[in-house]
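WARN  no MSA supplied for this record, continuing single-sequence
INFO  ligand: iron/sulfur cluster
INFO  echoing inputs
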Amino acid sequence: MYSDMAMILGDAPAKYFTKSVFAVDKVTGQTLRQKYSVTNYACLGCPIGCGRELVDFKPGLNVDGPEYETAMAFGPLCLNTDLDTIVEANHLCNVNGLDTISAGVCIAYAFYLYDQGVLSAEQVGMELHWGDGRAVVKLVKKIVNQEGIGVLLSEGTLAMARELGRDEGEAAQVKGLEMPMHDGRAFHGLALSYATGPRGACHLKGDYYNIDLGNMVLEYMILPSERMASEGKAEPAAKFQSLKDLYDALTLCKFSPVQVTQLCEMLNALTGWDYDPEKLLAAGDRSVNLKRAISNRLGVTRQHDELPKICLEPLQEGSSDGSRPDMEAMLKQYYSYRGWDWETGKPSKEKLIELELAQVAQDLYKP
Ligand code: SF4
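INFO  complex generated
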Protein backbone atom coordinates (compact mmCIF):
# COMPACT_ATOMS: atom_id res chain seq x y z
CA MET A 1 0.00 0.00 0.00
CA TYR A 2 1.11 3.55 -0.71
CA SER A 3 0.16 4.90 2.74
CA ASP A 4 3.65 5.27 4.26
CA MET A 5 4.95 7.07 1.19
CA ALA A 6 1.78 9.20 1.12
CA MET A 7 2.38 10.42 4.65
CA ILE A 8 6.00 11.28 3.92
CA LEU A 9 4.83 13.28 0.89
CA GLY A 10 2.05 15.02 2.83
CA ASP A 11 -0.34 13.39 0.36
CA ALA A 12 -2.56 11.49 2.81
CA PRO A 13 -5.00 13.73 4.68
CA ALA A 14 -5.65 13.10 8.38
CA LYS A 15 -8.09 14.44 11.00
CA TYR A 16 -10.57 15.64 8.39
CA PHE A 17 -7.99 17.39 6.20
CA THR A 18 -6.47 19.38 9.08
CA LYS A 19 -3.34 17.22 9.48
CA SER A 20 -0.91 15.23 7.36
CA VAL A 21 1.19 13.56 10.06
CA PHE A 22 -0.13 10.47 11.83
CA ALA A 23 0.88 6.99 13.04
CA VAL A 24 1.06 5.57 9.53
CA ASP A 25 2.86 2.35 10.53
CA LYS A 26 -0.41 1.11 12.04
CA VAL A 27 -2.26 1.19 8.71
CA THR A 28 0.26 0.21 6.04
CA GLY A 29 -0.03 -2.72 3.65
CA GLN A 30 2.85 -4.37 5.50
CA THR A 31 0.94 -4.19 8.78
CA LEU A 32 -2.14 -5.59 7.05
CA ARG A 33 -0.13 -8.60 5.87
CA GLN A 34 1.44 -9.15 9.28
CA LYS A 35 -1.91 -9.03 11.04
CA TYR A 36 -4.07 -11.06 8.65
CA SER A 37 -3.80 -13.93 6.22
CA VAL A 38 -3.93 -12.16 2.84
CA THR A 39 -4.26 -13.61 -0.65
CA ASN A 40 -4.18 -11.65 -3.91
CA TYR A 41 -6.47 -11.92 -6.90
CA ALA A 42 -6.55 -10.32 -10.33
CA CYS A 43 -8.76 -9.61 -13.32
CA LEU A 44 -8.18 -12.15 -16.10
CA GLY A 45 -4.60 -11.98 -17.37
CA CYS A 46 -3.56 -8.95 -15.31
CA PRO A 47 -0.01 -9.19 -13.94
CA ILE A 48 -0.66 -6.51 -11.29
CA GLY A 49 -3.35 -8.33 -9.30
CA CYS A 50 -4.43 -5.46 -7.11
CA GLY A 51 -7.26 -7.39 -5.40
CA ARG A 52 -6.62 -8.74 -1.93
CA GLU A 53 -8.70 -10.97 0.27
CA LEU A 54 -8.39 -11.39 4.02
CA VAL A 55 -8.93 -15.05 4.81
CA ASP A 56 -10.94 -15.83 7.96
CA PHE A 57 -11.24 -12.20 9.02
CA LYS A 58 -13.86 -13.65 11.30
CA PRO A 59 -14.20 -17.45 11.54
CA GLY A 60 -15.46 -18.60 8.14
CA LEU A 61 -15.66 -15.06 6.74
CA ASN A 62 -13.28 -13.92 4.00
CA VAL A 63 -13.47 -10.22 3.17
CA ASP A 64 -11.89 -7.87 0.66
CA GLY A 65 -8.87 -6.04 2.01
CA PRO A 66 -9.16 -2.25 2.14
CA GLU A 67 -7.42 -0.38 -0.65
CA TYR A 68 -5.40 2.76 -0.04
CA GLU A 69 -8.31 5.22 -0.37
CA THR A 70 -10.48 3.20 2.00
CA ALA A 71 -7.76 2.63 4.58
CA MET A 72 -7.04 6.35 4.70
CA ALA A 73 -10.69 7.44 4.78
CA PHE A 74 -11.72 5.17 7.66
CA GLY A 75 -8.25 5.41 9.20
CA PRO A 76 -6.18 8.60 9.51
CA LEU A 77 -8.98 10.86 8.30
CA CYS A 78 -10.80 9.84 11.50
CA LEU A 79 -7.46 9.51 13.38
CA ASN A 80 -8.31 5.82 13.61
CA THR A 81 -5.41 3.34 13.65
CA ASP A 82 -7.46 0.24 14.51
CA LEU A 83 -7.13 -1.95 11.39
CA ASP A 84 -9.90 -4.33 12.46
CA THR A 85 -12.43 -1.51 12.32
CA ILE A 86 -11.09 -0.21 8.99
CA VAL A 87 -11.47 -3.69 7.47
CA GLU A 88 -14.95 -4.09 8.95
CA ALA A 89 -16.11 -0.67 7.73
CA ASN A 90 -14.78 -1.51 4.26
CA HIS A 91 -16.61 -4.84 4.25
CA LEU A 92 -19.88 -3.24 5.34
CA CYS A 93 -19.60 -0.68 2.53
CA ASN A 94 -18.76 -3.34 -0.05
CA VAL A 95 -21.68 -5.61 0.76
CA ASN A 96 -24.10 -2.69 0.94
CA GLY A 97 -22.90 -0.82 -2.14
CA LEU A 98 -21.51 2.29 -0.42
CA ASP A 99 -18.60 4.32 -1.75
CA THR A 100 -15.92 4.03 0.93
CA ILE A 101 -14.41 7.43 0.14
CA SER A 102 -17.65 9.37 0.53
CA ALA A 103 -18.67 7.31 3.57
CA GLY A 104 -15.29 7.83 5.24
CA VAL A 105 -15.20 11.57 4.54
CA CYS A 106 -18.75 12.07 5.86
CA ILE A 107 -17.90 10.12 9.01
CA ALA A 108 -14.69 12.12 9.49
CA TYR A 109 -16.75 15.31 9.10
CA ALA A 110 -19.06 14.05 11.85
CA PHE A 111 -16.01 13.60 14.13
CA TYR A 112 -14.90 17.12 13.24
CA LEU A 113 -18.34 18.60 13.96
CA TYR A 114 -18.56 16.74 17.26
CA ASP A 115 -15.13 18.05 18.20
CA GLN A 116 -16.28 21.59 17.36
CA GLY A 117 -19.36 21.19 19.56
CA VAL A 118 -21.74 21.38 16.59
CA LEU A 119 -23.01 17.81 16.90
CA SER A 120 -23.98 16.47 20.33
CA ALA A 121 -23.81 12.90 21.64
CA GLU A 122 -27.59 12.93 21.62
CA GLN A 123 -27.72 13.84 17.92
CA VAL A 124 -25.07 11.28 16.98
CA GLY A 125 -26.45 8.58 19.26
CA MET A 126 -23.06 8.15 20.97
CA GLU A 127 -19.97 10.06 21.98
CA LEU A 128 -17.64 10.65 19.06
CA HIS A 129 -13.99 11.14 19.93
CA TRP A 130 -11.24 11.22 17.30
CA GLY A 131 -9.68 7.81 16.77
CA ASP A 132 -12.64 5.74 17.97
CA GLY A 133 -12.69 2.92 15.40
CA ARG A 134 -15.77 1.22 16.86
CA ALA A 135 -17.66 4.49 16.36
CA VAL A 136 -16.59 4.48 12.69
CA VAL A 137 -18.15 1.04 12.22
CA LYS A 138 -21.30 2.07 14.09
CA LEU A 139 -21.70 5.13 11.87
CA VAL A 140 -21.33 3.03 8.71
CA LYS A 141 -24.12 0.81 10.07
CA LYS A 142 -26.27 3.86 10.77
CA ILE A 143 -25.77 5.02 7.17
CA VAL A 144 -26.62 1.58 5.81
CA ASN A 145 -29.70 1.22 8.02
CA GLN A 146 -30.74 4.86 7.51
CA GLU A 147 -30.93 5.23 11.24
CA GLY A 148 -30.57 8.48 13.26
CA ILE A 149 -27.57 10.60 12.21
CA GLY A 150 -26.92 8.06 9.43
CA VAL A 151 -29.66 9.67 7.35
CA LEU A 152 -27.83 13.02 7.29
CA LEU A 153 -24.41 11.42 6.77
CA SER A 154 -25.70 9.54 3.74
CA GLU A 155 -26.54 12.86 2.06
CA GLY A 156 -22.87 13.88 1.83
CA THR A 157 -20.74 16.60 3.40
CA LEU A 158 -22.32 19.48 1.46
CA ALA A 159 -25.80 18.56 2.69
CA MET A 160 -24.40 18.11 6.21
CA ALA A 161 -22.87 21.60 6.18
CA ARG A 162 -26.07 23.16 4.85
CA GLU A 163 -28.33 21.30 7.27
CA LEU A 164 -26.18 22.26 10.26
CA GLY A 165 -25.75 25.89 9.17
CA ARG A 166 -22.00 25.58 8.63
CA ASP A 167 -19.75 27.36 6.14
CA GLU A 168 -19.94 25.30 2.93
CA GLY A 169 -16.16 25.62 2.58
CA GLU A 170 -15.95 23.18 5.47
CA ALA A 171 -17.59 20.45 3.36
CA ALA A 172 -14.77 18.41 1.81
CA GLN A 173 -16.27 17.99 -1.65
CA VAL A 174 -16.27 19.35 -5.19
CA LYS A 175 -19.55 19.43 -7.11
CA GLY A 176 -21.02 17.25 -4.38
CA LEU A 177 -18.42 14.46 -4.59
CA GLU A 178 -16.25 13.96 -1.52
CA MET A 179 -12.49 14.57 -1.69
CA PRO A 180 -10.31 11.49 -2.25
CA MET A 181 -7.30 10.59 -0.11
CA HIS A 182 -4.66 12.45 -2.11
CA ASP A 183 -4.12 16.00 -0.93
CA GLY A 184 -4.01 18.85 -3.44
CA ARG A 185 -1.72 20.82 -1.12
CA ALA A 186 0.95 18.18 -1.76
CA PHE A 187 0.35 18.12 -5.54
CA HIS A 188 -0.94 21.37 -7.05
CA GLY A 189 -1.70 19.82 -10.45
CA LEU A 190 -3.95 17.34 -8.67
CA ALA A 191 -5.80 20.19 -6.93
CA LEU A 192 -6.61 21.59 -10.38
CA SER A 193 -7.81 18.17 -11.62
CA TYR A 194 -10.11 17.82 -8.61
CA ALA A 195 -11.53 21.33 -9.06
CA THR A 196 -12.30 20.91 -12.75
CA GLY A 197 -13.25 17.21 -12.84
CA PRO A 198 -16.54 16.58 -14.66
CA ARG A 199 -18.03 14.77 -11.68
CA GLY A 200 -16.11 16.64 -9.00
CA ALA A 201 -13.17 15.58 -6.86
CA CYS A 202 -12.62 12.21 -8.49
CA HIS A 203 -9.30 10.40 -8.06
CA LEU A 204 -9.95 8.43 -11.25
CA LYS A 205 -10.16 11.42 -13.58
CA GLY A 206 -6.69 12.88 -13.67
CA ASP A 207 -4.56 11.30 -10.95
CA TYR A 208 -1.93 13.96 -11.51
CA TYR A 209 0.06 13.03 -8.41
CA ASN A 210 1.32 10.09 -10.48
CA ILE A 211 2.93 12.51 -12.92
CA ASP A 212 4.70 14.57 -10.28
CA LEU A 213 5.87 11.33 -8.67
CA GLY A 214 7.90 10.62 -11.81
CA ASN A 215 5.53 9.18 -14.41
CA MET A 216 5.18 10.85 -17.77
CA VAL A 217 3.27 10.83 -21.04
CA LEU A 218 5.93 11.66 -23.59
CA GLU A 219 3.54 11.88 -26.55
CA TYR A 220 1.91 14.92 -24.91
CA MET A 221 4.99 16.19 -23.07
CA ILE A 222 3.28 15.66 -19.74
CA LEU A 223 6.35 15.59 -17.53
CA PRO A 224 7.05 15.62 -13.79
CA SER A 225 7.74 19.01 -12.25
CA GLU A 226 7.92 20.62 -8.80
CA ARG A 227 4.87 19.08 -7.17
CA MET A 228 4.05 22.01 -4.90
CA ALA A 229 4.29 24.70 -7.58
CA SER A 230 1.18 25.96 -9.38
CA GLU A 231 2.90 27.53 -12.38
CA GLY A 232 2.91 25.43 -15.55
CA LYS A 233 0.43 22.83 -14.28
CA ALA A 234 -2.70 23.82 -16.23
CA GLU A 235 -1.92 22.50 -19.71
CA PRO A 236 -0.41 19.14 -18.69
CA ALA A 237 -3.14 18.60 -16.08
CA ALA A 238 -5.85 19.29 -18.69
CA LYS A 239 -4.22 16.94 -21.20
CA PHE A 240 -3.82 14.21 -18.59
CA GLN A 241 -7.46 14.65 -17.57
CA SER A 242 -8.56 14.25 -21.21
CA LEU A 243 -6.43 11.14 -21.61
CA LYS A 244 -7.77 9.57 -18.41
CA ASP A 245 -11.32 10.41 -19.46
CA LEU A 246 -10.87 8.00 -22.35
CA TYR A 247 -9.95 5.08 -20.12
CA ASP A 248 -13.59 4.37 -19.33
CA ALA A 249 -14.59 4.55 -23.00
CA LEU A 250 -11.73 2.19 -23.84
CA THR A 251 -12.63 -0.09 -20.88
CA LEU A 252 -9.06 0.20 -19.63
CA CYS A 253 -8.05 -0.27 -16.02
CA LYS A 254 -6.75 2.99 -14.51
CA PHE A 255 -3.63 1.15 -13.37
CA SER A 256 -2.66 0.16 -16.94
CA PRO A 257 0.85 1.45 -17.57
CA VAL A 258 0.23 1.49 -21.33
CA GLN A 259 1.81 4.19 -23.51
CA VAL A 260 -0.36 6.40 -25.71
CA THR A 261 1.31 5.15 -28.91
CA GLN A 262 0.64 1.54 -27.89
CA LEU A 263 -2.91 2.49 -27.02
CA CYS A 264 -3.43 3.85 -30.54
CA GLU A 265 -1.90 0.72 -32.07
CA MET A 266 -4.20 -1.53 -30.04
CA LEU A 267 -7.25 0.58 -30.83
CA ASN A 268 -6.44 0.62 -34.55
CA ALA A 269 -5.77 -3.13 -34.64
CA LEU A 270 -9.11 -3.84 -32.99
CA THR A 271 -11.26 -1.38 -34.94
CA GLY A 272 -9.50 -0.69 -38.23
CA TRP A 273 -9.53 3.02 -37.32
CA ASP A 274 -6.60 5.30 -37.81
CA TYR A 275 -5.88 6.94 -34.47
CA ASP A 276 -2.63 8.69 -33.64
CA PRO A 277 -1.80 10.40 -30.32
CA GLU A 278 -3.12 13.75 -31.55
CA LYS A 279 -6.47 12.31 -32.64
CA LEU A 280 -6.72 10.36 -29.41
CA LEU A 281 -6.22 13.50 -27.31
CA ALA A 282 -8.89 15.27 -29.37
CA ALA A 283 -11.27 12.41 -28.53
CA GLY A 284 -10.48 12.89 -24.82
CA ASP A 285 -11.02 16.65 -25.15
CA ARG A 286 -14.33 15.95 -26.88
CA SER A 287 -15.41 13.72 -24.01
CA VAL A 288 -14.48 16.29 -21.34
CA ASN A 289 -16.17 19.13 -23.24
CA LEU A 290 -19.33 17.17 -23.90
CA LYS A 291 -19.62 16.41 -20.18
CA ARG A 292 -18.89 20.03 -19.42
CA ALA A 293 -21.67 21.22 -21.71
CA ILE A 294 -24.12 18.82 -20.05
CA SER A 295 -22.98 20.06 -16.62
CA ASN A 296 -23.41 23.67 -17.77
CA ARG A 297 -26.94 22.86 -18.85
CA LEU A 298 -27.52 21.48 -15.35
CA GLY A 299 -26.27 24.68 -13.73
CA VAL A 300 -22.51 24.22 -13.34
CA THR A 301 -20.52 27.46 -13.62
CA ARG A 302 -16.95 28.54 -12.85
CA GLN A 303 -17.95 28.88 -9.18
CA HIS A 304 -18.22 25.09 -9.03
CA ASP A 305 -14.59 24.64 -10.13
CA GLU A 306 -13.16 25.26 -6.69
CA LEU A 307 -11.66 23.30 -3.84
CA PRO A 308 -13.28 23.64 -0.42
CA LYS A 309 -11.54 25.99 2.00
CA ILE A 310 -10.74 23.19 4.43
CA CYS A 311 -8.65 21.43 1.77
CA LEU A 312 -6.75 24.59 0.81
CA GLU A 313 -5.85 25.91 4.24
CA PRO A 314 -2.04 25.48 4.52
CA LEU A 315 -1.05 22.78 7.00
CA GLN A 316 1.50 23.50 9.70
CA GLU A 317 3.26 20.15 9.57
CA GLY A 318 4.68 17.47 7.31
CA SER A 319 6.34 17.90 3.94
CA SER A 320 3.49 20.01 2.51
CA ASP A 321 3.87 22.47 5.40
CA GLY A 322 2.69 25.93 4.27
CA SER A 323 1.74 24.80 0.76
CA ARG A 324 -1.38 26.31 -0.82
CA PRO A 325 -2.24 25.80 -4.51
CA ASP A 326 -2.83 29.05 -6.41
CA MET A 327 -6.24 28.02 -7.69
CA GLU A 328 -7.13 31.29 -9.41
CA ALA A 329 -3.92 31.37 -11.48
CA MET A 330 -4.16 27.68 -12.41
CA LEU A 331 -7.84 27.95 -13.29
CA LYS A 332 -7.25 30.98 -15.54
CA GLN A 333 -4.55 29.10 -17.44
CA TYR A 334 -6.70 25.95 -17.55
CA TYR A 335 -9.72 27.85 -18.92
CA SER A 336 -7.54 29.52 -21.51
CA TYR A 337 -6.07 26.18 -22.64
CA ARG A 338 -9.49 24.50 -22.74
CA GLY A 339 -11.17 27.40 -24.54
CA TRP A 340 -13.69 27.87 -21.71
CA ASP A 341 -15.29 31.19 -20.95
CA TRP A 342 -14.03 32.71 -17.68
CA GLU A 343 -17.35 34.39 -16.91
CA THR A 344 -19.82 31.60 -17.64
CA GLY A 345 -17.63 28.50 -17.31
CA LYS A 346 -18.92 27.21 -20.66
CA PRO A 347 -16.78 25.84 -23.49
CA SER A 348 -16.68 28.48 -26.22
CA LYS A 349 -18.76 27.95 -29.33
CA GLU A 350 -15.57 27.89 -31.41
CA LYS A 351 -14.01 25.22 -29.20
CA LEU A 352 -17.06 22.98 -29.47
CA ILE A 353 -17.14 23.34 -33.25
CA GLU A 354 -13.39 22.62 -33.44
CA LEU A 355 -14.07 19.38 -31.51
CA GLU A 356 -16.84 18.40 -33.96
CA LEU A 357 -19.52 19.17 -31.39
CA ALA A 358 -21.45 21.69 -33.48
CA GLN A 359 -24.81 20.36 -32.33
CA VAL A 360 -23.75 20.72 -28.70
CA ALA A 361 -22.65 24.31 -29.41
CA GLN A 362 -26.02 25.02 -30.95
CA ASP A 363 -27.80 23.58 -27.93
CA LEU A 364 -25.60 25.29 -25.33
CA TYR A 365 -25.84 28.69 -26.97
CA LYS A 366 -29.42 28.63 -28.14
CA PRO A 367 -31.11 31.97 -27.45
S1 SF4 B 1 -6.87 -5.05 -14.27
FE1 SF4 B 1 -6.70 -3.31 -12.84
S2 SF4 B 1 -8.32 -3.69 -11.32
FE2 SF4 B 1 -7.94 -5.67 -12.37
S3 SF4 B 1 -6.36 -6.69 -11.11
FE3 SF4 B 1 -5.29 -5.56 -12.71
S4 SF4 B 1 -4.76 -3.61 -11.75
FE4 SF4 B 1 -6.37 -4.54 -10.50
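Residues 205 and 244 are 6 Å apart (CA to CA).
INFO  checksum written, moving to next record
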